[in-house]
Amino acid sequence: MATDTLKRTPGAGGATGGLRRLLLENGALTALIVLVIAMSALSGDFLTTDNLLNVGVQAAVTAVLAFGVTFVIVSAGIDLSVGSVAALSATVLAWTATSHGVPVFIAVLLAVATGIAAGLVNGFLIAYGKLPPFIATLAMLSVARGLSLVISEGSPIPFPDSVSHLGDTLGGWLPVPVLVMIVMGLIAAFVLGRTYIGRSMYAIGGNEEAARLSGLRVKKQKLAIYALSGVFAAVAGIVLASRLSSAQPQAADGYELDAIAAVVIGGASLAGGTGKASGTLIGALILAVLRNGLNLLNVSAFWQQVVIGVVIALAVLFDTLRRKAGATPSAAGASPGGKGKQAGTYALAAVVTVAIVGATSFLHNGSSTSADRKMGLSLSTLNNPFFVQIRAGAMAEAKKQGVDLTVTDAQNDASQQANQLQNFTSSGVGAIIVNPVDSDAASNSVKAADKADIPVIAVDRGVNDAKTDALVASDNVAGGELAAKSIAEKLGGKGKIVILQGQAGTSAARERAQGFENGLKAFPGIQVVAQQPADFDRTKGLDVMSNLLQAHPDVRGVIAANDEMALGAIKALGSKAGKSVSVVGFDGTPDGLKAVEGGSLYASVAQQPTQLGRIAVDNALKALDGEKVRQTVKVPVKVVTKENVAGFSG
Prior knowledge:
The chain is of the alpha/beta class. The chain has 24 helices and 16 strands.
């Protein structure tokens, strides 16, 4: 797909040829129009003012990141570090302003300076160190993410109130992130089309050696290009953290791929030399419309990834077909009437879209669907058996009660969950159930639902600084204390153990770690020789435990913050598991219970996740019916061992 102004191909005449040229010359715009029309026809909730503003907000961070990446791709480079740089910049702002009392204005400048510094390092490694852009920026991706975790100590940092207003609205309806996106887009367009460095980007991307021979200082220009990408990444990080009211050390994870996808969908070539800010904006909007519409249509988050991958592949295929058809991009600014023609095309596209969408809206008039029997459930992840069981319990109860339940997967991304909660609110569901990725980050979205008089039930984890009708949860801290007590008593009150922690920055990881610490205080003979995160992942549990065994071969016990990491540790321990080394997990998942039954896992602190999902739906229905619900509904945790596993049901 391409949005570049294309030269007219001789021989293509008539109305058919003119339509064909229009579609070829504005592929991304055409795709966006088709998507908007299709989503309007398929979902009556799509074409509302609130939802369209949601699409703009959800596109904002990706678009700002993508504007910076456009500079790099136009110059035939690549920047994989922008997501991590965004998180690091936001962390620096929150850390300096909140923890060290630095004036907010100076803290913002330090955040932007952080982005510039990261970009300059990338540029130096590429221009002077001769590293391939892929390798240099991949290294920065890891460094920036690591520094973000080091500075924040793995925990979200509250954002200054004065900066958090960037996540608010003007006049109660116009989102500030949308305004920031527009401003940054105009700056990007100006840089690309009106400045010396913009022309240098096209020259370097078209033919770097020719640019160098013509007198262009290519190395210095690359420094500036990557520094600009860092600036845009810093701004995107600040906007994202403002939406979440906190700097999340794991924020924007994977966003670099969305940014690159937006640039490519918008018509830029990865070979360099072509690309425009307007095309990048359209690419970001296409991704946002896709995600928003697929959420409203209750399409699985897993299938959403498949669809977006197909769209990216089609974008490149369309670009190839366009070039084979004889349409060739003209040089930036070469056509005197190009800008006026492009503006006219966009205006015509807007008129056509409004007309067709207005017609399709009649398909949904008079709909008898009742919103009060619709609910939305946003889970932090479905890449974990514990949350899969919560979903199963919720869906079973919803089916029993005749409730239309839409389940979404935030993939441990607080920003993605904020988008999903906004989509639920704008579509007017009767109630929302949320399992927060982070308790602080979910607050703004929950406040918006509360303002719309939509009951919100939190499950497994609470929401800070926002009103929820009920919290249905087990006590993670109490569960951690039980896990510590179990391993200590199994070892007779003495011995060396290691702790496998959960994903840094998540409330479950913090609370369970606190429980482990509290529980072990009563057993001074237990020595914790190592504590390392394994991100709630079985493979990482295997790798981390294998490494720790090299340094601590005499370890006698392992506490893991979930069963998946415990099962990875058991694999690393081999024949030692359940014999010379005792392992305690957390969650009571089906695989974990099988391991308990088999004896390789000594115990699992079971939270009965199926019950959590069932009770959450039941309480949401009570809140809808105006019945009084308890503020906190505790589901007891239980230590499951080989002696009682046969009678346990999650």
